[in-house]
């Protein structure tokens, strides 16, 4: 391997380490309670190295949120793609999102601190590039196949996305997450079934 390739790999490994450690600390204590010095020390690096890779604590946090958003989208896609029909893919994907996003660590970073730290517009851009994009595509496919009524997909996707984000926040704060996840899934099934033409 060339020296250039070795340095690029080392930079990526350092970047990945900082994202991993930042994610652990942000999930445990929240964005505002974690300092750059603490993250750098946990990685065995200087604050300067962290600034070099991310520019600021907010830059590192943005990378952490982006990482989690893509991770959740990947999990949702894997579950949805295992289903045979577009309707079952939507249902399975929505359930998978609730399960993935209601994890307390993810919930704190993705749904609580994410919009507050990044700002609503920036947070929405990340969401629209991942989970919201999947949901919009799934709904468009169902409209195209006549499974749900011909309706503007964009507002429908935002309504469903908002409902699921709120449900994930509720589940993550629950004293019995398994019970409330099951309850949320039952309510979600009723909500989705109202969209079907044949229902």
Automatic annotation (TrEMBL):
Stored InterPro entries: Homeodomain-like_sf, HTH-type_TetR-like_transc_reg, HTH_TetR, Rv0078-like_C, Tet_transcr_reg_TetR-rel_C_sf
Keywords, ordered alphabetically: DNA-binding, Transcription, Transcription regulation
GO molecular function: DNA-binding transcription factor activity; transcription cis-regulatory region binding
Domain of life the protein comes from: Bacteria
Protein's UniProt name: Transposon Tn10 TetC protein
Source organism per UniProt: Actinoalloteichus hoggarensis
């Amino acid at each position: 391997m060339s020296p250039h390739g070795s340095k690029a790999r080392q930079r990526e490994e350092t970047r990945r380490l900082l994202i991993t450690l930042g994610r652990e600390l942000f999930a445990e204590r929240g964005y505002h309670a974690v300092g750059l010095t603490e993250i750098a020390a946990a990685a065995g690096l200087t604050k300067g190295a962290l600034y070099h890779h991310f520019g600021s604590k907010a830059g590192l946090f943005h990378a952490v949120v982006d990482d989690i958003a893509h991770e959740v989208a990947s999990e949702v896609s894997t579950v949805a793609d295992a289903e045979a029909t577009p309707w079952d893919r939507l249902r399975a994907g929505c359930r998978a999102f609730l399960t993935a996003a209601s994890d307390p660590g993810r919930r704190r970073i993705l749904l609580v601190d994410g919009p507050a730290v990044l700002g609503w517009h920036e947070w929405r851009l990340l969401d629209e590039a991942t989970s919201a994009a999947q949901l919009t595509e799934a709904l468009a496919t169902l409209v195209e196949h006549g499974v749900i009524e011909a309706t503007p997909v964009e507002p429908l996707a935002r309504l469903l996305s908002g409902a699921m984000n709120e449900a994930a926040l509720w589940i993550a704060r629950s004293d019995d997450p398994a019970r409330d996840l099951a309850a949320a899934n039952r309510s979600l099934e009723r909500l989705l079934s109202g969209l079907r033409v044949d229902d």
